[in-house]
Amino acid sequence: MLWTVMPATGSCQLVPLIPSSSPTAGPVSISQPVGRGPLARNLPDDVRTIQDALNQVTVKGVAGGPLPFLDVDGICGPKTNAAIARFQQVQLNIFDGVIEPNKKTIIKLNEIIDPVSEEDLRAKVRLALPIVSQAIGAALRNLQAIITTGPAPAGPAATAADRLNRHFKLDTLSASKQSEARVDLFRSFTRYAAVMVNTEAINIDAVDEFDLDKQNPKIALTTGKGFFEEGQIDEDTNKRLDRIHLGLGFFAQNVTPEFGAFIILHELSHFVGHSDGRFIIDNGRGWFDDQFIKPLSADQRLTNADSYATFAHECRVDSPNKPAFVKTAPGGLGGAR
Ligand SMILES: [Zn+2]
After folding, report:
1. What is the DSSP secondary-structure string of 91-150?
2. For residue 88, with 0-12 CB atoms within 10 Å meaning exposed, 13-18 middle and 19 or more buried, which class applies?
3. Backbone dihedral angles phi then psi of residue 3, each to the nearest 5 degrees
4. What Å distances lie between residue 153 and 7, 309, 311, 312, CA to CA?
5. Residue 306 CA to ligand 1 centre (angstroms)
6. 333 alpha carbon to ligand 1 midpoint, in Å?
7. Alpha-carbon distance values, 152 to 146, 147, 149, 166, 219 (Å)
8. pLDDT tens digits, 240-288
Protein backbone atom coordinates (compact mmCIF):
# COMPACT_ATOMS: atom_id res chain seq x y z
CA MET A 1 0.00 0.00 0.00
CA LEU A 2 1.34 3.43 -0.95
CA TRP A 3 0.55 6.49 1.16
CA THR A 4 0.38 10.13 0.23
CA VAL A 5 2.67 11.82 2.73
CA MET A 6 2.80 15.60 3.07
CA PRO A 7 6.23 16.82 4.20
CA ALA A 8 6.75 20.09 6.07
CA THR A 9 7.72 21.72 2.77
CA GLY A 10 7.02 20.70 -0.80
CA SER A 11 4.57 18.35 -2.44
CA CYS A 12 3.22 15.10 -1.10
CA GLN A 13 5.29 11.99 -1.73
CA LEU A 14 3.87 8.60 -2.61
CA VAL A 15 5.64 6.09 -0.37
CA PRO A 16 5.14 2.79 1.44
CA LEU A 17 5.10 3.14 5.21
CA ILE A 18 7.42 0.98 7.25
CA PRO A 19 5.94 -0.49 10.41
CA SER A 20 7.20 1.16 13.55
CA SER A 21 9.09 -1.04 15.99
CA SER A 22 8.85 1.66 18.58
CA PRO A 23 5.38 2.83 19.55
CA THR A 24 6.79 5.28 22.08
CA ALA A 25 4.25 7.94 22.91
CA GLY A 26 6.20 11.04 22.02
CA PRO A 27 8.60 12.60 19.57
CA VAL A 28 11.69 10.97 21.09
CA SER A 29 11.67 7.50 19.66
CA ILE A 30 14.33 4.81 19.23
CA SER A 31 14.24 1.45 17.47
CA GLN A 32 16.69 -0.46 19.72
CA PRO A 33 18.10 0.03 23.25
CA VAL A 34 20.79 2.66 23.80
CA GLY A 35 23.36 2.74 26.62
CA ARG A 36 25.47 0.06 28.24
CA GLY A 37 24.97 -3.64 28.99
CA PRO A 38 23.96 -6.68 26.94
CA LEU A 39 20.64 -5.19 25.76
CA ALA A 40 22.20 -2.10 24.19
CA ARG A 41 22.45 -2.07 20.41
CA ASN A 42 23.52 1.57 20.10
CA LEU A 43 22.47 2.05 16.50
CA PRO A 44 23.90 5.43 15.45
CA ASP A 45 20.51 7.01 14.66
CA ASP A 46 19.12 5.89 18.01
CA VAL A 47 22.19 7.17 19.86
CA ARG A 48 21.88 10.54 18.13
CA THR A 49 18.21 10.69 19.14
CA ILE A 50 19.14 10.08 22.79
CA GLN A 51 22.09 12.50 22.76
CA ASP A 52 19.89 15.21 21.32
CA ALA A 53 17.10 14.44 23.80
CA LEU A 54 19.43 14.54 26.80
CA ASN A 55 20.81 17.89 25.63
CA GLN A 56 17.25 19.21 25.40
CA VAL A 57 16.72 18.27 29.04
CA THR A 58 19.51 20.71 29.90
CA VAL A 59 18.10 23.33 27.52
CA LYS A 60 14.75 23.08 29.32
CA GLY A 61 16.51 23.73 32.61
CA VAL A 62 15.38 20.38 34.02
CA ALA A 63 17.63 18.51 36.45
CA GLY A 64 19.51 15.48 35.13
CA GLY A 65 20.61 16.80 31.75
CA PRO A 66 24.27 16.82 30.64
CA LEU A 67 26.55 19.85 30.98
CA PRO A 68 28.59 20.41 28.91
CA PHE A 69 26.31 19.25 26.13
CA LEU A 70 26.90 15.90 24.49
CA ASP A 71 28.24 15.80 20.97
CA VAL A 72 25.39 14.48 18.83
CA ASP A 73 27.66 12.08 16.95
CA GLY A 74 25.78 8.78 17.16
CA ILE A 75 28.58 7.15 19.16
CA CYS A 76 27.66 5.86 22.61
CA GLY A 77 30.92 6.55 24.44
CA PRO A 78 31.74 7.22 28.12
CA LYS A 79 30.19 10.73 28.13
CA THR A 80 26.91 9.54 26.66
CA ASN A 81 26.77 6.58 29.04
CA ALA A 82 27.48 8.88 31.99
CA ALA A 83 24.74 11.26 30.84
CA ILE A 84 22.23 8.40 30.54
CA ALA A 85 23.16 7.14 34.00
CA ARG A 86 22.89 10.61 35.52
CA PHE A 87 19.51 11.28 33.91
CA GLN A 88 18.14 7.94 35.15
CA GLN A 89 19.44 8.50 38.67
CA VAL A 90 18.16 12.05 39.02
CA GLN A 91 14.80 11.62 37.31
CA LEU A 92 13.85 8.00 37.91
CA ASN A 93 16.11 6.48 40.54
CA ILE A 94 17.00 3.81 37.98
CA PHE A 95 20.58 2.54 37.65
CA ASP A 96 20.66 0.17 34.66
CA GLY A 97 22.21 2.68 32.26
CA VAL A 98 20.18 1.55 29.27
CA ILE A 99 17.28 3.28 27.50
CA GLU A 100 14.85 0.88 25.90
CA PRO A 101 12.09 1.67 23.39
CA ASN A 102 8.79 2.37 25.08
CA LYS A 103 10.17 1.98 28.63
CA LYS A 104 10.32 4.34 31.59
CA THR A 105 13.39 6.38 30.63
CA ILE A 106 12.22 7.29 27.15
CA ILE A 107 8.73 8.04 28.39
CA LYS A 108 10.28 10.41 30.94
CA LEU A 109 12.39 12.06 28.25
CA ASN A 110 9.26 12.66 26.22
CA GLU A 111 7.40 14.09 29.19
CA ILE A 112 10.18 16.59 29.75
CA ILE A 113 10.94 17.52 26.16
CA ASP A 114 7.52 17.63 24.61
CA PRO A 115 4.84 17.79 27.26
CA VAL A 116 2.11 18.20 24.66
CA SER A 117 -0.82 16.06 25.62
CA GLU A 118 -3.31 14.17 23.54
CA GLU A 119 -5.82 16.75 24.72
CA ASP A 120 -3.64 19.59 23.38
CA LEU A 121 -3.55 17.88 20.01
CA ARG A 122 -7.30 17.38 19.96
CA ALA A 123 -7.84 21.01 20.89
CA LYS A 124 -5.81 22.13 17.91
CA VAL A 125 -7.75 19.90 15.53
CA ARG A 126 -11.01 21.11 17.05
CA LEU A 127 -10.11 24.67 16.05
CA ALA A 128 -9.34 23.68 12.46
CA LEU A 129 -12.32 21.42 11.73
CA PRO A 130 -15.07 24.09 11.77
CA ILE A 131 -12.99 26.18 9.35
CA VAL A 132 -12.78 23.17 7.02
CA SER A 133 -16.55 22.73 7.18
CA GLN A 134 -17.14 26.42 6.51
CA ALA A 135 -14.84 26.29 3.47
CA ILE A 136 -16.61 23.22 2.09
CA GLY A 137 -20.00 24.88 2.64
CA ALA A 138 -18.84 28.06 0.90
CA ALA A 139 -17.42 26.09 -2.04
CA LEU A 140 -20.69 24.18 -2.40
CA ARG A 141 -22.72 27.42 -2.34
CA ASN A 142 -20.52 28.90 -5.07
CA LEU A 143 -20.85 25.81 -7.23
CA GLN A 144 -24.57 25.62 -6.65
CA ALA A 145 -24.97 29.28 -7.70
CA ILE A 146 -23.48 28.69 -11.12
CA ILE A 147 -24.91 25.19 -11.60
CA THR A 148 -28.48 26.37 -11.01
CA THR A 149 -28.44 29.66 -12.93
CA GLY A 150 -25.67 29.07 -15.46
CA PRO A 151 -23.21 31.83 -16.39
CA ALA A 152 -24.46 35.30 -15.46
CA PRO A 153 -22.96 38.77 -15.91
CA ALA A 154 -23.21 39.61 -12.21
CA GLY A 155 -24.20 38.16 -8.86
CA PRO A 156 -23.21 34.93 -7.10
CA ALA A 157 -22.96 32.91 -10.33
CA ALA A 158 -20.55 35.44 -11.83
CA THR A 159 -18.45 35.46 -8.66
CA ALA A 160 -18.36 31.66 -8.66
CA ALA A 161 -17.38 31.55 -12.36
CA ASP A 162 -14.53 33.98 -11.72
CA ARG A 163 -13.24 31.80 -8.88
CA LEU A 164 -13.54 28.61 -10.93
CA ASN A 165 -11.67 30.26 -13.79
CA ARG A 166 -8.79 31.38 -11.62
CA HIS A 167 -8.36 28.20 -9.55
CA PHE A 168 -9.37 25.61 -12.17
CA LYS A 169 -9.06 27.47 -15.53
CA LEU A 170 -12.56 26.31 -16.43
CA ASP A 171 -12.81 29.12 -19.00
CA THR A 172 -10.33 27.21 -21.16
CA LEU A 173 -12.82 24.36 -21.54
CA SER A 174 -15.83 24.01 -23.86
CA ALA A 175 -19.20 25.00 -22.40
CA SER A 176 -20.26 21.39 -21.96
CA LYS A 177 -16.94 20.43 -20.32
CA GLN A 178 -17.31 23.42 -18.01
CA SER A 179 -20.71 22.36 -16.77
CA GLU A 180 -19.46 18.78 -16.37
CA ALA A 181 -16.51 20.07 -14.31
CA ARG A 182 -18.82 22.13 -12.07
CA VAL A 183 -20.97 19.09 -11.33
CA ASP A 184 -17.86 16.96 -10.68
CA LEU A 185 -16.58 19.60 -8.27
CA PHE A 186 -19.93 19.74 -6.54
CA ARG A 187 -19.85 15.95 -6.11
CA SER A 188 -16.32 16.08 -4.72
CA PHE A 189 -17.09 18.78 -2.17
CA THR A 190 -20.27 16.92 -1.18
CA ARG A 191 -18.06 13.93 -0.35
CA TYR A 192 -15.71 16.17 1.64
CA ALA A 193 -18.72 17.29 3.64
CA ALA A 194 -19.62 13.64 4.23
CA VAL A 195 -16.13 13.00 5.61
CA MET A 196 -16.42 15.95 7.96
CA VAL A 197 -19.64 14.62 9.45
CA ASN A 198 -17.62 11.67 10.75
CA THR A 199 -14.88 13.50 12.62
CA GLU A 200 -13.20 10.17 13.42
CA ALA A 201 -12.08 10.22 9.80
CA ILE A 202 -9.51 12.82 10.80
CA ASN A 203 -7.14 10.75 12.90
CA ILE A 204 -4.64 12.33 15.23
CA ASP A 205 -1.56 10.29 14.63
CA ALA A 206 1.07 12.57 16.09
CA VAL A 207 3.50 9.77 16.66
CA ASP A 208 4.26 8.28 13.33
CA GLU A 209 7.01 6.26 11.74
CA PHE A 210 7.64 9.20 9.48
CA ASP A 211 8.11 11.58 12.34
CA LEU A 212 11.22 9.82 13.55
CA ASP A 213 13.06 12.48 11.58
CA LYS A 214 12.36 15.37 13.91
CA GLN A 215 14.07 17.79 11.53
CA ASN A 216 11.32 17.23 8.98
CA PRO A 217 8.17 16.11 10.74
CA LYS A 218 5.43 15.03 8.40
CA ILE A 219 2.25 17.04 8.38
CA ALA A 220 -0.31 14.54 7.21
CA LEU A 221 -0.75 11.31 5.39
CA THR A 222 -3.58 9.52 3.68
CA THR A 223 -4.22 6.95 1.01
CA GLY A 224 -5.45 7.96 -2.42
CA LYS A 225 -9.23 7.44 -2.46
CA GLY A 226 -9.12 6.06 1.09
CA PHE A 227 -12.70 7.39 1.35
CA PHE A 228 -13.79 4.27 -0.54
CA GLU A 229 -11.79 1.85 1.65
CA GLU A 230 -14.15 1.84 4.59
CA GLY A 231 -12.90 -0.28 7.46
CA GLN A 232 -9.79 -1.40 5.54
CA ILE A 233 -6.46 -1.60 7.34
CA ASP A 234 -2.93 -1.40 5.93
CA GLU A 235 -1.36 -4.81 6.67
CA ASP A 236 2.12 -3.39 7.20
CA THR A 237 1.33 -0.63 9.65
CA ASN A 238 -2.15 -1.40 10.99
CA LYS A 239 -3.19 2.09 9.93
CA ARG A 240 -6.73 2.53 8.74
CA LEU A 241 -6.96 3.40 5.08
CA ASP A 242 -10.22 5.32 5.55
CA ARG A 243 -8.57 8.00 7.65
CA ILE A 244 -6.67 11.20 7.13
CA HIS A 245 -3.76 10.90 9.56
CA LEU A 246 -2.33 14.10 11.00
CA GLY A 247 1.37 13.84 11.84
CA LEU A 248 3.56 15.79 14.22
CA GLY A 249 4.17 18.53 11.67
CA PHE A 250 0.48 19.44 11.83
CA PHE A 251 0.97 20.38 15.46
CA ALA A 252 3.95 22.64 14.87
CA GLN A 253 3.68 26.26 16.03
CA ASN A 254 3.40 27.68 12.52
CA VAL A 255 0.28 25.65 11.74
CA THR A 256 -2.51 28.02 12.74
CA PRO A 257 -6.13 26.82 12.67
CA GLU A 258 -6.54 28.43 9.22
CA PHE A 259 -3.41 26.73 7.91
CA GLY A 260 -4.53 23.48 9.52
CA ALA A 261 -7.87 23.77 7.74
CA PHE A 262 -6.06 24.32 4.44
CA ILE A 263 -3.96 21.19 5.03
CA ILE A 264 -7.06 19.13 5.77
CA LEU A 265 -8.80 20.43 2.62
CA HIS A 266 -5.73 19.44 0.60
CA GLU A 267 -5.76 15.97 2.16
CA LEU A 268 -9.51 15.59 1.62
CA SER A 269 -8.98 15.88 -2.11
CA HIS A 270 -6.42 13.03 -2.11
CA PHE A 271 -8.69 11.07 0.20
CA VAL A 272 -11.78 11.36 -1.98
CA GLY A 273 -10.26 11.63 -5.47
CA HIS A 274 -11.90 13.00 -8.61
CA SER A 275 -15.50 12.01 -9.10
CA ASP A 276 -14.59 10.37 -12.42
CA GLY A 277 -12.42 7.93 -10.45
CA ARG A 278 -9.02 9.48 -11.05
CA PHE A 279 -6.65 10.16 -8.19
CA ILE A 280 -6.12 13.72 -7.04
CA ILE A 281 -2.37 14.28 -6.93
CA ASP A 282 0.05 17.17 -6.50
CA ASN A 283 0.73 18.57 -9.96
CA GLY A 284 2.01 21.65 -8.20
CA ARG A 285 1.51 23.39 -4.89
CA GLY A 286 0.51 26.98 -4.33
CA TRP A 287 -2.00 29.75 -5.11
CA PHE A 288 -3.57 30.04 -8.58
CA ASP A 289 -1.06 32.63 -9.80
CA ASP A 290 2.04 31.01 -8.26
CA GLN A 291 4.79 29.81 -10.58
CA PHE A 292 4.11 26.09 -10.17
CA ILE A 293 0.34 26.43 -10.59
CA LYS A 294 0.18 28.96 -13.43
CA PRO A 295 1.31 26.55 -16.17
CA LEU A 296 -1.19 23.84 -15.16
CA SER A 297 -4.09 23.16 -17.53
CA ALA A 298 -7.70 22.89 -16.42
CA ASP A 299 -7.41 19.12 -16.46
CA GLN A 300 -4.26 19.18 -14.33
CA ARG A 301 -5.87 21.57 -11.86
CA LEU A 302 -8.96 19.39 -11.61
CA THR A 303 -6.66 16.61 -10.39
CA ASN A 304 -4.50 18.89 -8.22
CA ALA A 305 -4.98 18.89 -4.45
CA ASP A 306 -4.00 22.51 -3.76
CA SER A 307 -6.42 23.80 -6.42
CA TYR A 308 -9.29 22.36 -4.39
CA ALA A 309 -7.89 23.78 -1.15
CA THR A 310 -7.24 27.25 -2.58
CA PHE A 311 -10.66 27.45 -4.24
CA ALA A 312 -12.42 26.49 -1.01
CA HIS A 313 -10.30 28.91 0.98
CA GLU A 314 -11.20 31.80 -1.31
CA CYS A 315 -14.89 30.91 -1.20
CA ARG A 316 -14.78 30.93 2.60
CA VAL A 317 -12.89 34.19 3.15
CA ASP A 318 -14.47 35.86 0.11
CA SER A 319 -11.15 37.28 -1.04
CA PRO A 320 -8.76 36.31 -3.87
CA ASN A 321 -5.71 37.26 -1.78
CA LYS A 322 -3.16 34.55 -1.19
CA PRO A 323 -2.78 33.67 2.49
CA ALA A 324 0.78 33.69 3.86
CA PHE A 325 0.73 29.99 4.71
CA VAL A 326 0.27 28.95 1.08
CA LYS A 327 3.70 28.15 -0.36
CA THR A 328 4.42 27.18 -3.92
CA ALA A 329 6.33 24.03 -4.83
CA PRO A 330 6.73 21.81 -7.88
CA GLY A 331 4.51 18.76 -8.28
CA GLY A 332 5.40 15.66 -6.34
CA LEU A 333 3.11 12.79 -7.16
CA GLY A 334 2.56 14.30 -10.58
CA GLY A 335 6.13 13.49 -11.43
CA ALA A 336 6.06 10.12 -9.75
CA ARG A 337 3.09 8.81 -11.64
ZN1 LIG B 1 -0.70 16.43 -1.46
Report:
1. HH---S-EE-TTSHHHHHHHHHH----HHHHHHHHHHHHHHHHHHHHHHHHHHHHHHHH-
2. buried
3. -115, 145
4. 42, 26, 20, 22
5. 7
6. 8
7. 8, 11, 7, 17, 40
8. 899 998 887 787 778 899 999 999 999 999 999 999 999 999 999 999 9
Q: How remote is the CA of residue 162 from the centroid of ligand 1, in Å?
A: 25
Q: What is the pTM of this model?
A: 0.72
CA 44 to ligand 1 center in whole angstroms = 32
Residue 37 Cα to ligand 1 middle (Å): 45
Regions of the chain short of the pLDDT cut 50 = 20-25, 210, 212-213, 334-337
CA–centroid distance, 10 to ligand 1, in Å, is 9
Q: What does DSSP assign to residue 226?
A: G
Report the distance separating Cα 289 and Cα 166, nearest Å: 8
Which CA distances in Å does 295 have to 283, 300, 331?
A: 10, 9, 12
Bridge partners of 224, per DSSP, are none
Going from the Cα of 283 to the center of ligand 1, the distance in angstroms, rounded, reads: 9
Quick: pLDDT tens for 220-246.
888 889 999 989 998 877 888 999 988
DSSP 240: B
Task: Please give all residues whose CB falls under 5 A of ion ligand 1, grouped by chain where several chains appear.
Answer: 12, 282, 305
